Every structure is written in structure tokens, then in C-alpha cells.
């Protein structure tokens, strides 16, 4: 079973203990558990098999590589858990299988008890209408109309019977009414997920309560022995996945992923959710690692949250998630998350770091890590095609702390040595916190002023054509000037560029304005030839400082267009002080 | 040890002491096997999972064995290698009914065979395919196939099916082991004789 180089890296971690590609299993992680059903220290694998999806549902028990026991289930299993329900010796766990509104409890693999969810409140109007139908006061068509009216307006939804009735063809109604009218109406919800919660002791072999989520947006906690409802908690939406931790009598926490795409965290002290995590896409997997919650989303991402719902990290996955499970190895202090992916891989994440990738011949749809047989580090995988695989973690397997996936260098996550907060800093922060509004306003006011001043200056510059860039779209020009020399003779170079995309500019002239008492210029006025776009044209002229008093002045340059009075461009050249002596 | 002692050993006057390591996964039946090899008045009735290791002694017609009965539990398996140096022979016990963990047994065996203290020594290895009385147990041939024993070329080895509860298969295995150990002593002392 070693093909390719990636396999080799993995074969240093996992042993292939068993693979049966045709085990004929149709199941999901929620219906797989490992438990010491005989009390002999050897864990069995218990699977709620969905059969064909409509028939042939089975409760299957594996011992090692062989199917040991098989019993028929009456309905599709939605969840399966093993739990210790009493303190009788030998301490053998019971199996609870949730299907429809029932929980079937098995002890020693024999049916032991059946729990039924309490039925829901029935719409009084609906009851009245059926009463009338029974007494023959209304005909089937009138019944239909009345029920439709109730359906559209009432707060309490209709029972399944009425809903089925509304879907019937007219000719079938008569018969349906006569068949059902005598029975009372019932409105029943179904179980969507199941978990266990230790009653009062945190010990491994403590008695556990069953925790069930229902389609009617409720979570029930059941007494382990009497199966009475100990507590009822309500959610804003129907729960789909659940993680339970803590003890019922002390403190517990139920993390529930709901059909509305949110995750709610329920606590012992209140019957309403304490925290809510809103996700950007639907959760498809939910597991807990230590105190943190790891959620897999439909958008191929994995998120880590604290137990209060604060996001810690995000990891991008290469394919959609099929299933998730925790990998907890207390003997080695190792905890991680297993993520089954649609690309036939199972990824192992420790926080956001991918530490191992397991390749499977088929898409893995069910995952369970724990003690199987006598091996603590067993990974049970069921596949889409009905296969069953068991891998065993090697005693010597070591997981790299580092991320196996390519990503940012580790230096990026090195913590910076941020200095301690000074009193000044703290005072400043407090002041900012208290006067945030006033400070924001003052800032906005000043910002507006700056903008206004800038705009005014810009307008002035445009009006006076003071800018070294021409704003005229017909003649886009750029100008800069360079003065060379020490004096009294200076060389003035003007670099003119036509910044238009393709159009040349014609008929330009340059004129200088200066104090005739200070300077004299050889060519105070000249014409510019045609300017080809993009090229920089240097024009040189000589300026002589005629004063020897060591003063300087500004020389203004105007670029003019024939036939226009306003200059296209204006530039001010601050002349340097003449340092040289004029040759007499 | 002098030549006289050796001669005395062959003549059965004084038995040669041999250190044997008893290895294998937890629950494979190591302690049960060792217990069965002891004289019947020294056997215990209740056998519990071994913690760490136990030292046991038993004698055959010509040898006196000191057995290190190691615990096979995962957390104690890293103790094994500290005793490899002392071991003059190895008994490796396999639960032939535990098909799931056959890969784990193979893994531990491979680690043992590749250990520097074992790799280049011709230590004889006796395999017990134990629990042959269990209905779903694999045959010794199948076990030897799954463990790839045919790949062991540089050490004498032997596998026998056993039922430690009733002691079946144990004498056959121990006879073989005794033969190999005596053989190696004879070889060694021959070379001593030729030196003289
Ligand atoms: N059916 C059957 N059971 C056996 C046989 N040998 C041992 N056992 C049982 O297997 C269990 C484990 O035996 P141990 O001798 O304690 O196993 P071990 O290899 O010493 O285990 P550790 O000390 O934990 O490494 C006991 O309940 C034995 O009674 C056998 O040949 N057949
Ligand atoms: Mg033992």
C-alpha cells in the first residue's frame, strides 16, 4: 500500500490495519461510535447504517476486522452515541440511536428502552376544523379551504396530517378524511442531532445524560436512567450539529451549529444562547479541540473560535468538506482536527496548521478517532462507496509543529517585543475613548478646512495660470526651468514638454517678465517651434545680472498661445544671488 | 567462564544461564506463556497485565532461562530497547486472533530487527502465534506471512502456533530455542578449544 512519495511521508505516521472497500456501509460520522460493549477492555465499532437510504437500516457492531453483530433499525438513524446510563457492574455502555422522534436505547445489544419526544402544541383552529369534519359539518373541499386559511395566517404550524391533506388531489380527499378523522391530531418533531453530557462526575466512566437537538429549534437534556427531560433549551433555528462539554450538575456548554448558518453557544445558567457566531457560509462540520471550537464551512474554509465565539484563525482548504472529527490522544497530549475532503483526502489540522494528509482510495464520509480494539490511536473511516478503513497511528509518529501547507514564513508569526504601555499612553487612550466624538469632529472640521484652503489655492493658481502644468486640455504642457551659473551671467534653460497623447501643439511663444533694473536678457521673447508629443524641448537663454548690490529677484516665465491673452503656463524662477563680478 | 564449566554444562552438571527477552503487544499472552513454562508449583493462577517488566526463571533439560517479561502496552514499549543488549534470545508473542493489530505487531518487530543492538547479532527468535484455540485465530503460516518473517535472513527463527492456556505448542518452541542456544555455545567453545 505504498504508492508515490506523499504516501511515504504518511506511512511514517499511520499503519493500514484494515481496508474493506465493499463493507456495504452507508453512514456518517454522527452515526459512528467506539465503545467497550463487553467490558473486556476491547472497544467495538458501532455503526448506524442507513441501508439503502429508505430501507434495510441496520445497527452494526464490528470487532476488529470482522462484523460481529447486526440488528435491524426501524427508521433512518440520524445519530448514534454510546453512553454509560447507570452505575451497575459491569460498567457496560448503552447505545442510543436517534431516528425520527425516537431514541432507541440498546443494552448488551438488545433493545432496552424507547424514548419519544414530547409532541408539540396543536393549532386550536386546526383542531376545530377537523372536529367539524368528523361531525360531518363540512365537506372535504371546505375543509381544504379552511386549512389553507389557517396555514397562511396561524402562528402554530399545521400538523403533518393537514399538510398531507392539502397536497392531495380532490378525488382522494374523501377517503383520507374518513380514514383519519377519528384519530386525534398530533404534531411531532424529529431529532436532528444527538450528544452526551456527563451528569455529575467528569470521570471517564461517569454516567452521561443524552442531549438531543430537534427540528423544532429545541435542545433537550435527558436523565440517563429515567429518560425524563431534565432541561429544555431553545434556539433561534433548527440545530444540525452539536458539541457538548462539561457536567450537567456543575457547568456545561453546548455548541450548536444551526440551519440558519449561525453557531450558538448554550450555557447551564440560561435557556437561551449565550453567544452567537455568525458565519459567512453554512457550517458543515463542528468539533471541539480543548476549549476551542473548530468549524468547517461550505466555502471550503476552516475557522477556529474561542469558547466565547471569538475568531482565532482561518484556514483555506483545497476541496469541499465531507466530514470532520476530533483526534484526541490524551496519552500523548495530542489534539487535532480531522477533516474529510471531497478530493479523497483527510487532512489533519492542529490549529490552522496542516500537519498531516492521509490519502484515501475513495471519498471519506465518516470519521472517528479513538480507541478501537486495544489500540488507542485508531482512525476509523467509512467511504462514499461503502468501504471501511481502519488506520492506526504509529507509536513513533511525530507531527511537525510546522505547517505542511505552503504559506507565510514562520517569522511572520513571531511575536514582536512590544514595549509596556506607559501612563501617558494609557491616559491618552482613555482620553481618546472618552472624547472620541469630539475628537473626530474636530479632526473632520480641520480636514474640511485644509481641503477648502487647498481648493482655494488651486483655483487661484488656475485662474492666474500659475501652475507649471497647463490645465488647458487643448494644450497640455509641462514646464520646468533650470538656472545655471554663478553670476552675473546665468544660463536659463526651460524644458517644455507636450504631454498630449498624440496631438502636436503649434503657435506658442515664451515671454519673460523681469525687473529691468536688475537683469538684462538677450531674448526676453521667443517663439517655440511645433511641439511633438512626449519629447522634452530645452530652450536656453542668457540672463545677466546688472546690479552688484548682491540682491536677487524673481523672473516670471509665461508660455503664451497666439491669439489668447491669458498665458497657458506661468513659472516663477527664483534667481540666485550673483556671486561673480562682471568683467569690466 | 572456563572450559570446565562448559563441559559441566553439556554433561548437565551445571546449567548454562541464558537471558531471554519476551516481547510482543499487550494482551498477546507473554506472561501466560512464561507462567506455563515454569514448574507447576511456581505457576500463578491470576495473570494481570504487566506493568513495566517482570523477571522470571525457568529451566529446560540443559539450560536455565532468565526471562525479561516485558509489558506490551504502548506506553511501555519504549523500554524494550534498553534490554536488547542483554538478550541472548528473543521470544516474540503474537495474538493470532487480533487481526486488526497484526500491522502493529509487524511494526514493532521491524523496529526491533532494525535496532543497532539486534541488527548485526545472530540472536535466535522464537515466534509464538498464540491463542490458536480462538475460533477466528489465523494459522501460524498466515501470521508468518503477515509479519513477512521470510525476510529475516541473518538470524535463526522459528514460529509455532500455541495455546498458552493449555500449554500447547510451548514445548516445541522451547525445544527449538534450546537447540539454537546450545548450538551457539558449542560453536563458541569450539573456537575457544581451537585457540588452545
Ligand atoms: N484463548 C486464549 N487466551 C489466552 C491465551 N494466552 C493468553 N490468553 C489470555 O490473554 C490475556 C492476556 O494475557 P497476558 O499473558 O496477560 O498478556 P501479556 O502479553 O503478558 O500482556 P501485557 O503484560 O499487557 O503485555 C489473558 O486474559 C490470558 O488469559 C491463549 O493461548 N488462548
Ligand atoms: Mg504480561
Structure, explained:
The complex is a heterodimer of chains A (584) and B (196). In chain A, the strands form nine sheets. In chain A, strands 1-28-27-26 form a four-stranded antiparallel sheet, with no helix packed on it. A four-stranded antiparallel sheet of chain A has the order 2-3-4-5, with no helix packed on it. Chain A has a four-stranded antiparallel sheet with strand order 6-7-8-9, with no helix packed on it. Chain A has 584 residues and is α+β, with helices and mostly antiparallel strands. Among the domains of chain A are: 1-23 and 279-399, TolB, C-terminal domain (Neuraminidase, 6 Propeller); 124-180, no CATH class; 439-466; 477-583, Immunoglobulin-like. The radius of gyration of chain A is 41 Å and the shape is elongated. Chain A contains seven helices and 36 strands. Chain A starts with a helix and ends in a 10-residue tail after the last strand. Chain B is globular. The model of chain B has no long low-confidence stretch (mean pLDDT 88). With 196 residues, chain B is α/β, with parallel strands linked by helices. Chain B contains six helices and six strands; from the N terminus they run αβαβββααβαβα. The interface between A and B is medium-sized, with 20 and 18 residues. Residues 24, 26-32, 47, 49-50, 71-73, 93, 130-131, 133-134, 163-165 of chain B line the site of guanosine-5'-triphosphate.
In short:
Chain B: Keywords: Cell membrane, Cell projection, Cilium biogenesis/degradation, Cytoplasm, Cytoskeleton, GTP-binding, Lipoprotein, Magnesium, Membrane, Metal-binding, Myristate, Nucleotide-binding. Chain A is 15% helix and 41% strand. By secondary structure, chain A is an alpha+beta fold.
Amino acid at each position: 500500500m505504498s504508492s508515490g512519495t506523499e504516501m511515504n511521508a504518511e506511512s511514517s505516521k499511520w499503519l493500514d490495519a484494515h481496508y474493506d472497500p465493499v463493507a456495504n456501509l452507508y453512514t456518517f460520522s454522527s452515526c459512528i461510535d467506539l465503545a467497550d460493549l463487553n467490558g473486556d477492555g476491547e472497544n467495538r465499532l458501532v455503526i448506524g447504517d442507513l441501508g439503502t437510504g429508505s430501507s434495510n437500516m441496520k445497527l452494526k457492531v464490528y470487532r476488529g476486522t470482522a462484523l460481529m453483530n447486526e440488528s435491524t433499525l426501524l427508521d433512518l438513524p440520524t445519530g448514534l452515541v454510546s453512553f454509560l446510563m447507570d452505575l451497575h457492574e459491569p460498567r457496560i455502555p448503552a447505545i442510543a440511536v436517534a431516528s425520527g422522534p425516537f431514541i432507541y436505547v440498546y443494552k448488551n445489544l438488545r433493545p432496552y428502552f424507547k424514548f419519544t419526544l414530547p409532541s408539540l402544541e396543536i393549532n386550536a383552529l386546526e383542531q376545530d376544523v377537523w372536529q367539524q369534519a368528523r361531525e360531518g359539518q363540512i365537506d372535504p373541499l371546505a375543509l381544504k379551504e379552511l386549512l389553507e386559511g389557517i396555514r397562511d395566517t396561524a402562528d402554530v404550524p399545521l400538523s403533518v396530517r393537514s399538510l398531507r391533506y392539502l397536497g392531495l388531489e380532490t378525488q382522494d380527499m374523501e377517503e383520507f378524511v374518513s380514514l383519519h378523522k377519528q384519530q386525534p391530531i398530533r404534531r411531532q418533531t424529529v431529532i436532528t442531532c444527538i450528544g452526551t453530557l456527563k451528569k455529575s462526575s467528569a470521570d471517564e466512566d461517569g454516567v452521561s445524560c443524552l442531549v438531543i437537538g430537534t427540528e423544532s429549534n429545541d435542545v433537550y437534556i435527558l436523565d440517563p436512567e429515567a429518560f425524563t427531560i431534565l432541561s429544555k433549551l431553545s434556539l433561534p433555528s433548527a440545530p444540525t450539529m452539536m458539541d457538548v462539554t462539561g457536567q450537567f450538575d456543575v457547568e456545561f456548554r453546548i455548541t450548536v451549529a444551526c440551519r440558519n448558518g449561525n453557531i450558538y453557544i448554550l450555557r447551564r445558567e440560561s435557556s437561551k444562547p449565550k453567544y452567537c457566531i455568525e458565519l459567512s457560509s453554512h457550517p458543515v462540520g463542528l468539533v471541539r479541540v480543548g476549549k476551542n471550537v473548530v468549524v468547517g464551512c461550505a466555502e471550503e474554509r476552516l475557522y477556529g473560535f474561542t469558547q466565547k465565539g471569538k475568531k482565532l484563525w482561518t484556514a483555506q482548504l483545497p476541496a469541499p468538506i465531507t466530514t470532520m472529527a476530533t483526534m484526541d490522544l490524551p496519552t500523548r497530549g495530542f489534539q487535532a482536527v480531522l477533516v474529510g475532503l471531497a478530493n479523497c483526502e483527510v487532512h489533519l489540522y492542529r490549529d490552522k496548521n496542516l500537519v498531516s494528509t492521509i490519502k484515501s482510495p475513495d471519498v471519506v464520509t465518516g470519521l472517528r478517532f479513538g480507541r478501537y480494539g486495544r489500540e488507542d490511536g485508531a482512525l476509523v473511516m467509512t467511504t462514499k462507496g461503502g468501504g471501511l478503513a481502519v488506520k492506526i497511528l504509529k507509536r513513533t509518529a511525530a507531527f511537525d509543529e510546522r505547517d505542511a501547507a505552503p504559506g507565510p514564513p514562520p517569522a511572520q508569526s513571531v511575536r514582536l517585543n512590544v514595549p509596556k504601555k506607559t501612563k501617558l499612553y494609557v491616559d491618552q487612550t482613555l482620553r481618546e475613548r472618552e472624547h472620541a466624538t469630539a475628537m473626530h469632529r474636530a479632526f473632520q472640521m480641520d480636514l474640511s478646512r485644509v481641503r477648502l484652503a487647498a481648493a482655494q489655492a488651486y483655483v487661484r493658481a488656475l485662474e492666474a495660470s500659475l501652475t507649471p502644468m497647463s490645465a488647458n486640455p487643448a494644450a497640455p504642457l509641462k514646464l520646468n526651468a533650470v538656472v545655471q551659473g554663478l553670476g552675473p551671467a546665468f544660463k536659463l534653460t526651460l524644458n517644455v514638454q507636450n504631454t498630449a497623447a498624440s496631438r502636436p501643439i503649434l503657435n506658442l511663444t515664451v515671454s519673460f517678465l523681469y525687473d529691468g533694473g536688475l537683469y538684462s536678457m538677450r531674448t526676453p521673447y521667443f517663439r517655440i517651434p511645433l511641439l511633438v508629443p512626449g519629447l522634452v524641448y530645452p530652450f536656453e537663454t542668457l540672463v545677466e545680472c546688472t546690479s552688484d548690490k548682491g540682491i536677487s529677484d524673481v523672473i516670471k516665465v509665461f508660455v503664451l498661445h497666439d491669439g489668447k491673452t491669458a498665458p497657458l503656463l506661468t513659472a516663477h524662477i527664483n534667481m540666485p544671488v550673483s556671486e561673480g563680478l562682471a568683467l569690466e | 567462564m572456563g572450559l570446565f564449566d562448559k563441559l559441566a554444562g553439556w554433561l548437565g552438571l551445571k546449567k548454562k544461564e541464558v537471558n531471554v527477552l519476551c516481547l510482543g503487544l499487550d494482551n498477546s499472552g507473554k506472561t501466560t506463556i512464561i507462567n506455563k513454562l515454569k514448574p507447576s508449583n511456581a505457576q500463578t493462577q491470576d495473570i494481570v497485565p504487566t506493568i513495566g517488566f517482570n523477571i522470571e526463571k525457568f529451566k529446560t533439560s540443559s539450560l536455565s532461562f532468565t526471562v525479561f517479561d516485558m509489558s506490551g502496552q504502548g506506553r511501555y514499549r519504549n523500554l524494550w530497547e534498553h534490554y536488547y543488549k542483554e538478550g541472548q534470545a528473543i521470544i516474540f508473542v503474537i495474538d493470532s486472533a487480533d487481526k486488526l493489530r497484526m500491522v502493529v505487531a509487524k511494526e514493532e518487530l521491524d523496529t526491533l530487527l532494525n535496532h543497532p543492538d539486534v541488527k548485526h547479532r545472530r540472536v535466535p527468535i522464537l515466534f509464538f502465534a498464540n491463542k490458536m484455540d480462538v475460533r477466528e485465530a489465523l494459522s501460524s503460516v498466515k501470521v508468518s506471512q503477515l509479519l513477512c518473517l521470510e525476510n529475516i535472513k541473518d538470524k535463526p527463527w522459528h514460529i509455532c502456533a500455541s495455546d498458552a492456556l493449555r500449554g500447547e505448542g510451548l514445548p516445541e518452541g522451547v525445544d527449538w530455542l534450546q537447540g539454537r542456544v546450545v548450538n551457539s555455545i558449542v560453536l563458541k567453545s569450539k573456537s575457544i578449544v581451537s585457540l588452545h
